[in-house]
Records
---
Amino acid sequence: MLINQIAVFLENREGRIRDLSKVLAKAGVNILAMYVADTEEFGILRAITDDNTKAVAVLKENGFNTAVTDLIGFQVDDKSGELYKVLEILGDAGININYLYSFTRSSRKSAVILIKVDDNNKTAKVLRKHGIDLVDEGLI
């Protein structure tokens, strides 16, 4: 149900994402999903890896400022309108989404949506009630 995400605070300067990628590559950590939001001075890179514990450790060892957050992950068919249906359900339940990112899995013809909300338990309960397939780290 919960997906563990790492957030890395990066100075907005040339090569910082490359540097982060190098550290993870050298440690044998695979990035499964990533999202970067930036401002003029800094960026926040959010990622799911195949080993977040190891990723956080090696990033900290190499001077990166990291944090860990739990997200809710759910799966929808990879077709028009499926995300909207779930967002309507969440909106009707009064659940605000702080941010989301997604990726498709062509082998399964589905999309995984990762959302940051204020109340993970309430959100999971609402999604389950409406038959929405929750995913955990093993299914990403």
---
Amino acid sequence: MAEIKTPTPMEAFELLLAGNQRFVAGAPDHPNQDATRRAEIAPGQRPFAVLFGCSDSRLAAEIIFDRGLGDLFVVRTAGHVMGAEVLGSIEYGVDVLDCPLVVVLGHDSCGAVGAACAALEDGMTPAGYVRDVVERVTPSVLAARAAGRVEADEILAEHIRHTVDLLLDRSRVLAERVGAGQAAVVGLCYRLADGSAQVVAARGLEVTAGSAA
């Protein structure tokens, strides 16, 4: 496979930005989704971003960012909660695949965030391993409330910011790359109704929170 120049963190973010804008406008290009692309990347992958998002079925990454095969290294869990496997997967994308951008993707009406809020209010938590997911979201809800943020969108934004900070705190590999200007971490909130992604946190990238992605 021909040598491909690794984009800068900003260039990678702008690729996502452009794709999401096409999706919102209802005019996707569907890039890199044909047989030629399939054959081109069969020998090896060079995605330009790691996308760590919620598992919600309405957040299909390649669709909402109008990308194709080999573009995104996707890691998803309910409520974008982290464990060792998630951290290892993200580090693989950054350190081995040389992705310059990590995106944390949350969304409105998140069931995991809603369940964590409900558990704090009525003391009832789900059974099985769903409880583990809810417990991992709870610190974000508590932090939002401690800061006086009680609206659903404020709590969600706090959870996304908390996940971004947690990634950098737990992964030395990622923190070092961001510190050296080789990578960036951006937290986005996806709006289910209109398909847009809004920036709520950015580390290593000059992007204003609240801007559309």
